[in-house]
Hints:
Elements: E1 12-18, H1 25-36, E2 43-49, H2 56-66, E3 70-75, H3 81-91, E4 96-99, H4 111-119, E5 124-131, H5 136-152, E6 161-168, H6 169-177, H7 185-192, E7 196-202, H8 215-229, H9 232-260, H10 270-303, E8 310-314
Parallel strand pairs: 1-2, 1-4, 2-3, 5-7
Antiparallel strand pairs: 3-8, 4-6, 5-6
Helix pairs in contact: 9-10
Amino acid sequence: MTKIITLNKxxxxxxxPIYNSANIFPELHKRLVRTLEPCVNKFEIIAVLDGCxxxxxxxxxxxxxxxxxxxxxxxxxxxxxxxxxxxxxxxxSGELIAIIDDDLEDPPELLPQFIEKIREGFDVVYGIxxxxxxxxxxxxxxxxxxxxxxxxxxxxxxxxxxxxxxMTDRVxxxxxxxxxxxxxxxxxxxxxxxxxxxxxxxxxxxxxDTSGYSSRKYIALAFNAIFSFSYKPLKYxxxxxxxxxxxxxxxxxxxxxxxxxxxxxxxxxWAYLSVAVLFLFGIQFIAFGIMxxxxxRIYDExxxxxxxxxxxxxxxxxxxxHGSGQ
Length: 326
């Protein structure tokens, strides 16, 4: 993956993954302009269209004609939120880089606070979601996931931190050099290190329409977070295997002893045997599934396919960028 280098760099590049946001982007653009114009001299907005099925391309293209600070990347199909972020980051040319989602749940008005923290000497400033306007069960699942992840990984990934952040270009250079395909950018951001801090905020409701992030996509992102940053599931399987083996050996010796002493009951213990066999088969299939997740990720890396394919670019200098992600 190659980061684009441009002379006369903007003060900040704002990377936005776009999925079916024709009804939202004009409001997002208006609020970004109103927020950034007073606090920076020059900025760019990089909108990455991830296989949109509405007229997002037409809406954003029209806005980009009116505002040359809008740059547009359109994928050939849907490659996913993390791939869209990766494409936008690899084309960002600002001294600072902001990531914000397209749904206005993360308020653009917080960006000046993020920028001020960067000016104080931090390399990364990320948002911590203090409150979410989601159903209770979803809020519970989010909190549970972050805490489970925190106990599994060896690096410190902040609880309730999303992709919403501002970073320096030296952090970006490291981030775009990381070539893995199953990406969890907020984990990669934490892994890089440097001087990082957080700003708490209350997350708003989605501005319009419904989220394009399905339960399946959330689960896939959670799996990437766990299996890309932790080997502990494999270690736990090893420990579980030793425990089950110890119990099995103990039971085997007990049965042999009872048989030799003539005290083994004549009534067959079919219920006990059935439960034991089903339990062990269940453990085996779980173990195969966990090992399969790691093997699948190895397979993805070995194929070395691009992370995304770009169909159209608008607003970038001629010859910059690549048609596909590396």
